[in-house]
């Protein structure tokens, strides 16, 4: 009669290491999201998103004054933004009225330097790089 080799606690060590490596660095947290992110683009001007700790955000075009401000929330890896108003050198205000301006993006990667997201239903992701903060 053949006997089966007995599993030891060390038998599972390689699997545990692989799971740890696969899961580490993949958590999407508010603290990693807070700050400014520029869309990685070959164009001379690009959009910069700044996410604040009070769950507001600003979106500007690099090198320009003014932009869009709104609110954001993070639900797991889903980033939900809602535009609230336009800000510019003349002041600006809410031009959206009661229109639903919310957008949901799935964050597939978030590190200290890079964020990749895609709109729900969109095939290609958009890569952003962390930049120095910019208030709006």
Task: Give descriptors for this structure.
136 residues; mainly beta; Lipocalin; 2 helices; 9 strands; 11% helix; globular
What does this 3D model show about the protein?
It is a single chain. The protein has 136 residues and is mainly beta. It has a single domain, classed as Lipocalin, CATH 2.40.128.370. 11% of the residues lie in helices and 44% in strands. It is built from 2 helices and 9 strands. The chain has helices spanning 13-23, 30-33; strands at 35-39, 47-51, 56-61, 67-75, 78-88, 91-93, 102-110, 114-119, 126-131. Strands 1-2-3-4-5-7-8-9 form an 8-stranded antiparallel β-barrel. A hairpin with a 6-residue loop joins strand 8 (114-119) and strand 9 (126-131). The longest helix is centred in the first third of the chain and has 11 residues, at 13-23. The radius of gyration is 21 Å and the shape is globular. The protein starts with 12 loop residues before the first helix and ends in a 5-residue tail after the last strand.
């Amino acid at each position: 009669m053949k006997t089966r080799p007995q599993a030891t606690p060390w038998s599972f060590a390689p699997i545990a290491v692989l799971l740890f490596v696969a899961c580490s660095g993949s958590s999407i947290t508010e603290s990693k999201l807070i700050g400014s992110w520029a869309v990685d683009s070959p164009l001379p001007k690009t959009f910069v998103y700044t996410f604040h700790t009070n769950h507001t955000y600003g979106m500007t075009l690099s090198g320009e004054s003014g932009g869009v401000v709104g609110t954001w929330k993070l639900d797991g890896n889903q980033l939900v933004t809602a535009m609230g108003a336009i800000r510019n050198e003349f002041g600006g205000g809410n031009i959206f009225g009661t229109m639903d301006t919310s957008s949901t993006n799935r964050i597939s990667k978030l590190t200290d330097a890079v964020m990749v997201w895609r709109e729900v239903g969109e095939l290609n992701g958009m890569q952003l790089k962390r930049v120095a903060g910019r208030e709006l």
